[in-house]
Task: structure prediction
Amino acid sequence: MLYETATNNHGLRHNPLKAIVAPRPIGWITSMSAKGEINLAPYSFFNAVSDDPPIVLFSSEGPKDSLVFVEETKEFVCSLATFDLRDAMVETSGRFPRGVNEMDRSGLTPAASRLVRPPRVAASPCALECRLLQIIDLKDLQGRSSSRYVVFGQVVGVHIDERFIRDGRLDTAAMRPIARCGYADYSVVDQVFAMARPKVPLPQQDAAE
Result:
């Protein structure tokens, strides 16, 4: 089948796009307002886009609390959402009134950050302390605002639970991070496999240099 996204006439009960672009890592974002209010929310439109400098992004559908708070204080923290924390993660996705602390609501314990003001999730095995780089108001093909905003942050501090460092490497599968698939579906990373990149000979002129 083929359908055009301008009409979304796919004939299915639900839009399949999110099930195609999957699994998507979850950015469990803590932010703080100028008044000191704490917000914690998961974003499945999230990823790392650079490692040098280290940069992550998340995309907000409309001006949600996370976006507003980051605009105010220019900082946020991304904690790793894991299988063990899945129920708390879903609880923090609720549309609570502004000012409600989702950490308290979901029974999570905050841990103080070192370089930014928003706290991290203490039970999470990894957390990224970030400072705002820029916010982009996404436009569609006609140049109209989509009411989707992409937040770019530079990672200034990384917290790692040393229990998951083995032989000098972070054991991703042992942490069991979860990711969003389509609809209400999630996946968990509990095993990994390695593949080496092919060794392609350099062109002669480059090799000579």
Q: What stands out?
A: Residues 173 and 191 are 5 Å apart (CA to CA). The mean pLDDT is 94. Helices lie at 17-20, 65-73, 86-91, 102-106, 172-175, 204-208.
